Amino acid sequence: RTLPTTERERTEFAIRSVFEESCEAWNRGDLDGYLASYWDSEKTLWISSGSLTRGKAAIAAAYKRRFSMGQPMGKLSIAELEIDVLTPDDALAFGRWILDLEGTLSQGFFTVQLRKIEGTWLFVCDHASASS
Question: Please, which residues have CB within 8 angstroms of residue 86's CB and are 6 or more apart in sequence?
Fold first, then answer.
């Protein structure tokens, strides 16, 4: 991978890194590490499985209910990641998620709004849908 040179390239590189680190945390079973990509705010939104969850604490609780201790989380990967840098502090990311859970593949699409908060790019709104 070539080093980014423009501000836009540096921003896209930083955002890609957020997604890569999130997948790495997920794949080692580190749910808290995965959730580190979400803004720690009551304003954070997560839309999944037809429901809306507000606030990082509620999002974390929902993930922890879905993947209780000891339950395998599988291998998560991201494909076709497209990043649209809107301003120096706001961006949208779109792509496909693929989860391999003990040989059973689930996949779908996501749209994530990211905001640079105190120097760190974080998910402020994560909308994911599963393919049928």
Answer: 92
